[in-house]
Amino acid sequence: MGTTDKNASIRSPGKRPGFRKSLMTLAASVMLATSAQAATPSTAEVNTTDLAVTDDTVTVGILHSITGTMAISEIGSVQAEKLAIEQINASGGVLGRQIEFVQEDGASDWPTFAEKSRKLLRQDNVAAIFGAWTSASRKAILPVIEQYNGMLYYPTFYEGLEQSPNVVYTGQEATQQILAGIDWAVKEKGAKSFYLLGSDYIWPRTSNKIARKHIDKLGLKVVGEEYYPLGHTQFNSVINKIKLKKPDVIFASVVGGSNVAFYKQMKAAGVDFTDEKPLLLTISVTEDEIRGIGGDNVEGIYASMKYFQSLDNPNNKEFVAAFKETYGDDMVIGDVTQAAYLGPWLWKAAVEKAGSFDIDKIREEFAGIEFTKAPEGYVRIHENHHLWSKTRIGQAQLDGQYKVVHETEELMEPDPFPEGYQ
Amino acid sequence: MFDGYTSSELMSIFAMQGFAGLSLFSVFVLMAMGLAIIFGQMGVINMAHGEFMILGAYTTYLTSSFFQSYLPGLFGGYFFFAIILAFLICAALGALVEWLMIRHLYHRPLDTLLATWGLSLIMQQAYRSIFGAREVGVDLPEWMMGAFQVTDLVELPINGLFVMIIALSIAVAVYLLMYRSGWGKNVRAVVQNRPMAEAVGINSAGIDRATFALGCGIAGIAGAAFTMIGSTGPSSGQAYIVDTFLVVVFGGAQSLIGTIISAFGISQAQSTMEFFLSGSMAKVLTLLVVVGILMLRPEGLMALKVRR
């Protein structure tokens, strides 16, 4: 189209300046239109699978619990995802299209998650779902999302042992969090004996299995392994047991309300974590949880995560500032919140690399996609749909923030199926 | 598991373990006392009991924030004030709930179960809307933190001691109120024979409301006390409700003494087994024993002998 017009304007003899001028404007406007089209490819081209994509918008779904017991944890993820979407829109959207979102409430109920994901995929035809938090909710969504070929961006660190073609895991799988944490405790703190303590469900049990195997491999000792029902609030007996066994390290994966009870009772039993006798290393207490537990109850514990709000890099400073500006100064950002923030950005990168919103085309492009503006620094998608990322050790401070004391030199390779655990 | 420990180490561990059991016992007594009054004396299954406890916890949270901002000098003593306030607020709400809802549902125990369960959902969502879904951290004054050093190895948590003292005071107060006061006599009369009690001029509707309010108020005190050892969030109450019913049903619904004996039995069994087994197994075994005993004694440990 553009070429023909240009030829026409060249062929016409330039006798009448007015005519010539109008022709040139026409040519210019056509060229402009053409170049704009290059940035915004036609909808028919980028969407061959009836997704909710129009000439200037694309619709995605957000599916977290904003009511029920899990709301406490999931609201941070919702906030992070909305912030990322807002920022992407401000910078021009995805393939020239502004992102709109449909938000559904999983209500801390796993069948509801399945139901709502079906609604998002079948009725709203969303191009991506950012959501789920617990492994149970992800497992509930999984069959639906695989049946209708959607794509879920899942933010939580989890136990691994899964790799769906329809999920991108933006949090760590278990080995990324655990191995580096234990190595650090052994190398820097000279730990020889470990007490493994967790809530009684799949994530802590799998995590401790991985931890135990690693500890055995290093030739060190596990002096106790213990699980308490979710919501358990009395830890006096186990605290006595720990005092009797005198481990060097308590490796804790207690979650939810139990966390608050556990740390308060440890403190009340006269354990001062800053003495590091024993040292407490957790994989479940982020800045978010500390708000409920209270900084004075956890001061001195160590956490193995990939992200801490206090990380000192320009990306993170920008992210924290934007987050606080949007949601208020008293907000804290935990590991999972940051991982949720990665979801929309990684989706955008994959869509733009594929030049299409189609799930099958995006999937081809995942391996190797990088996000250099990640608050945690830099991440890259592994071909197993998990992220390469660094693991950090932070020490909890009185003000509820972590001070980063160690960081792995290399990105940790995600290994959702570590040998010997299948 | 005791190889390589000196006898003094073992002695002190057992001392602390005994204390852990007693501290669990006082937690159970606190949790169950309010429910025992409502369930035992009125036959109302109050599923919102945990939420009333959390109301007490939030009251404590607000009181502590208030003292921190406006009366920092008195912060060390705010907790006593919070306990009284928690009792009053929960009792007032309890009276309101009784007037609005419960009084229409007497003699329909299954309906009270549904209605109060609905109430618990409403209360949870209200907390979530008002205080946010995240748990709140309740600051304690310095003197309530840490442990009381008895010997080198024996350390008793101060807040555990404090919970014990509260539980003991509540138990004594309830005993005096129920068995040594005129009002308590009226309550027991209404429980045993409502028409006769009314016939001798007892205002049974008023007694019902006051009893329900008392139960809710005690739940509020329990909630205030638990800010020291547990979490304060919109759904934290759910963690207590099962244990609470377990204690009350096991003790025999209509007996306050039974509630205390059952709290003692369950807490000792659980904390001893937790020491020798893992946490989840201890819970499983405790529940199995309770189920076994309830099969032999369906009315609970201390059933009233009544003619049916």
From TrEMBL, chain A:
Transmembrane region(s): none
Lineage top rank: taxon: Bacteria
A Pfam family of the record is Peripla_BP_5
User: Where in this chain does the entry annotate a coiled-coil region?
Assistant: none
What UniProt keywords apply to this chain's record, in alphabetical order?
Signal
- Annotated signal sequence is 1-38
| Entries under PANTHER family matching the protein | ALIPHATIC AMIDASE EXPRESSION-REGULATING PROTEIN (PTHR47628:SF1), PTHR47628
Q: What is this protein called?
A: Amino acid/amide ABC transporter substrate-binding protein, HAAT family
Q: Which organism is it from?
A: Marinobacter salarius
From TrEMBL, chain B:
Q: Which domain of life is it from?
A: Bacteria
Pfam families this protein is in? BPD_transp_2
Q: What is the lineage of its organism?
A: Bacteria, Pseudomonadati, Pseudomonadota, Gammaproteobacteria, Pseudomonadales
Query: Transmembrane stretches, by residue range?
Result: 20-40, 52-71, 77-97, 158-178, 212-233, 239-263, 275-296
Organism of origin = Marinobacter algicola DG893
Q: Where is this protein chiefly located? A: membrane
Family, according to the entry, reads as follows: Belongs to the binding-protein-dependent transport system permease family. LivHM subfamily.
- What are the UniProt keywords, alphabetically? Amino-acid transport, Cell membrane, Membrane, Transmembrane, Transmembrane helix, Transport
What protein name applies here?
Branched-chain amino acid ABC transporter,permease protein
